[in-house]
Amino acid sequence: MRIIVTGGGTGGHVYPALAFISYLKKITPGAEVLYIGTEKGLESKIVPKAGLSFETIDVQGLKRSMSPQNIKTIFKFIKSTNQAKKIIKDFSPDIVLGTGGYVSAPVIYGASRLNIPTVIHEQNSIPGMTNKFLSRFATKIAVGFQEAANYFPEEKTHFTGNPRSQEIADIDAEEAISEFGMSLDKKTVLIFGGSRGALKINQAMVEALPKFVGKNYQVIYASGEIYYNEFKEVFEKYNIEPNIAIRSYIENMSEVMSNADILVSRAGATTLAEVTSLGIPSILIPSPYVTADHQTKNAEALKKSGAALIITDAELTGDKIIKQIERILDDGKMYRNMSDASIREGVLDSSVRLLKVINRCLE
Q1: Residue 305's pLDDT is what?
Q2: Are residues 208 and 142 in the same domain?
Q3: What span, in angstroms and rounded, lies between the C-alpha atoms of 235 and 205?
Q4: Share of the chain above pLDDT 90, in %
Q5: Res 174: pLDDT
Q6: Is the pLDDT of residue 241 over 90?
Q7: Which residues fall in the annotated binding site?
Q8: Residue 208 sits in the same domain as residue 146
Q9: Which residues does the UniProt record annotate as the domain Glycosyl transferase family 28 C-terminal (predicted)?
Q10: Whether residue 96 has pLDDT greater than 80
Q11: pLDDT at residue 25, as a whole number
């Protein structure tokens, strides 16, 4: 199989793509993969490190408000579609897979104009602008949340879950939390606000840190590099506590998460795919700054199933974080019920399902 994969801008689009590629290469060692992204997106750093062939196109996203910048965006879209077509013709793929982000628009659209089968994958419960646009051109549509299927044509939409679920479920790395000087005998709470961090979560953590000291559970916190420097004095003061570890960024987040007992985080689709694949109860703080408030919808899906509690960004405080953590840890029945609900939400064969959708396009 020769496949072009595209998607970028954030880890939420890139990591599911890489997870699927990893699975594809395991079961089809001869598969040839080309990844198309942008120079400025996160994919430009992550994809080459994964040892994949990587090409870039010059494209930018539309502004949601009326802006003169959108005129430039339209011209760039036309130019980038032509760039994408040239790359596609040179590589001659059997199929093209898009995992979201504005970079995937000219690639999927260009492939459809060249009569090459295409699949798009929507991770969130509410589709973004790019996938809504591409849905009319894609051969098949895969969704990570059942709710997202309501936004696409029924006849070509398939529920697959998120490929990160299958990838992270296979991880077993007990030594990961030992690297933080943490005990394997204590409950571990993992807290983070995304790869770049979140100001409101950092502010709440500054309030919470003195109260975490001496607890019978341990806390690992990733602040984001920008915020670590902003709150460095406070973080370094409490980082020496035996039950608290604070880092700006955790490189092996998947391994650390596989050892966590509770997750406190934003409600990005990839994070939720990971936490449910592991059956971890979660306390979700949806970002109010994302398109169509999709993180709230993502979080509500898990809350409805009983797998998560929600703290809104507006009501977030250090005391609220501690109260919800201890509410779960102090109630064994609640913890077990949330864990069971979480694992029920996980889709542990998501890459298998996505490959089946791709193979249907190739039949």
Answers
A1: 95
A2: no
A3: 9
A4: 77
A5: 67
A6: yes
A7: 10-12, 124, 195, 250, 295
A8: no
A9: 188-350
A10: yes
A11: 95
What are 272-292's pLDDT values in tens digits? 999 999 999 999 999 998 878
Structure tokens at 146: 């059942």
Binding residues for UDP-N-acetyl-alpha-D-glucosamine: 10-12, 124, 195, 250, 295
Residue 25 structural domain: 2-162+348-362
Using one digit for the tens of pLDDT, what is the confidence trace for 184-234?
Answer: 889 999 999 977 789 999 999 999 999 999 999 999 999 998 899 999 999
Beta strands in the chain (DSSP E): 2-6, 32-37, 53-56, 95-98, 118-122, 140-143, 157-159, 187-192, 217-222, 244-247, 262-265, 282-284, 308-310
Q: Which two tokens stand for residue 49?
A: 């490190």
In angstroms, rounded to a whole number, what is the distance separating the alpha carbons of residues 28 and 162? 20
Residue-wise DSSP of 179-196: GGT--TTSEEEEEE--TT
CA 87, distance to chain mean position in Å, is: 27
- Asked if 102 and 210 sit in the same domain, the reply is no
| Shared domain check, 6 and 47 | yes
Asked whether the beta carbons of 257 and 263 are under 8 A apart, the reply is yes
Q: Give the pair of three-digit tokens for residue 141.
A: 């549509």
Same-domain pairing of 88 and 6? yes
Domain count, the chain: 2
Q: Are residues 118 and 225 in the same domain?
A: no
220 and 317 share one domain: yes
Question: How high is the pLDDT of residue 68?
Answer: 60
Other beta carbons within 10 Å of 85: 17
